[in-house]
Amino acid sequence: MPDTYPPSNLAAIDAAHHLHPFSDMKKLNADGARIIQCGEGVYIFDDRGRKYLDGFAGLWCVNIGYGRREIAEAVARQMNELPYYNTFFGTTSTPTSLLAQKVTSHAGARFNHIFFTGSGSEANDTWFRMARVYWSAVGKPSKKIVIARKNGYHGSTVAGASLGGMKYMHEQGDLPIPGIVHIGQPYWYGEGGDLTPEEFGLKVARELEAKIDELGEENVAAFVAEPVQGAAGVIIPPETYWPEIDRICKARDILLVTDEVICGFGRLGAWFGHQHFGVEPDLAPIAKGLSSGYLPIGGVLVSDKIADVLINEVGEFNHGFTYSGHPVCAAAALENLRIIEAEGLVERVRDDIGRYFGKAWAALADHDLVGEAVSIGLMGGLQLAAEKSTRTRYEKPDQVGALVRDHALANGLVLRATGDRMLASPPLVISHAEVDEMARITKLALDAAWKELKC
Ligand code: PMP
């Protein structure tokens, strides 16, 4: 239970002064924002003491759960010692360099360097520039175009939102910027038609090859994709997809970028999503689970192939942020990674809780309202369907998803809805009993929504 309370008019203050991201502000101001007061383990509590199981880990990020005093203590120590210093002018700080070493130690032999940023969006903007700088430095300056995917998500900055393939984002602010093109996504349920998932996986992967041919390999810098699409609705590609993408990137002279902002740090039961799928990216933006969201920090894992050119050919990469490698954020991240290692959380997802969650989640596929229930590690997607056998969708997908989400919330579970898909991504420390509770409330919410939809 929270021991401090906000002023009684906080919702009114918020409505008067705070513009929220990705929110219908008129509606939010009328309803009043929910005030989240504190958290412990997988639970969050609002200002009225109501308890919710956070099935979404904040925003895919609170991997170690809420209320870890070790992080608060590490942060306090670093705050007292050195609250800030930059990494621009020949300087570093202890947690920053140690974090660079620690993160890369989990990223496989090809990755020995990281470029720090403040967020996942900044990480995407960073590799976008880095890839172009790389190709210029190796004498191929025409290689500038980046191929990304429809319905991908790579952040909200100008390059991030352009790399993303969200139409509703492109519509605001004249995006994408030139030099970014999009191919199809491996969303079999929605777009696979009569093909098997395996056939469809190959078909959409080969759109990459066709797009490279159309644009000319000499003009293409990179291909970027999330190992598993998150914001699009936890879209897990068919098994044939990633091996074919990896093959095409290697056969053609283009960089592969896996956006690990969600999939990194154990979510799929491997340190990074590309390891789970056995592919070999050249660059990998990260954030979220790096600090479990306790403080804002992100970065780009840079493979030796690129780092060697940056260091030995480019020399000075004219790019960086005031908060690149922020010492307090780095101290939080370092302690977070210590906890993930000490508690074996990545292995726990792979060998135990991911499987347990997978079974409980898959059982939801029996529900009349569910077209498919898929999961990987501790990431789950539920496709809502009007008619299961024909994969027929509801006419107003946003309304169906919101209905299920609201019923879940009313019963004490936070789930996210993206259109007619429900998204789950609980903290990696979730117990078996808490997974059972998640599944029970999700079923309750589906029952309640189904009843309303049939009325
Ligand atoms: N990439 C992916 C795959 C993401 O899911 C997100 C955030 N949800 C981002 C990038 C952007 O990260 P941030 O919100 O920290 O800028």
TrEMBL record:
Keywords in UniProt for this one?
A: Aminotransferase, Pyridoxal phosphate, Transferase
Q: Which cofactor does it need?
A: pyridoxal 5'-phosphate
Q: Which domain of life is it from?
A: Bacteria
Transmembrane domains' residue ranges? none
According to the record, the signal peptide region is none
Q: Has the keyword Transferase been applied to this entry?
A: yes
Q: What InterPro entries does the annotation carry?
A: Aminotrans_3, Aminotrans_3_PPA_site, PyrdxlP-dep_Trfase, PyrdxlP-dep_Trfase_major, PyrdxlP-dep_Trfase_small
Which GO terms fall under molecular function for this chain's record?
pyridoxal phosphate binding; transaminase activity
Q: Which family does it belong to?
A: Belongs to the class-III pyridoxal-phosphate-dependent aminotransferase family.
Tell me the PANTHER family matching this sequence.
AMINOTRANSFERASE, AMINOTRANSFERASE CLASS-III
Protein name, please? Aspartate aminotransferase family protein
- Source organism of this protein record: Rhizobium sophoriradicis
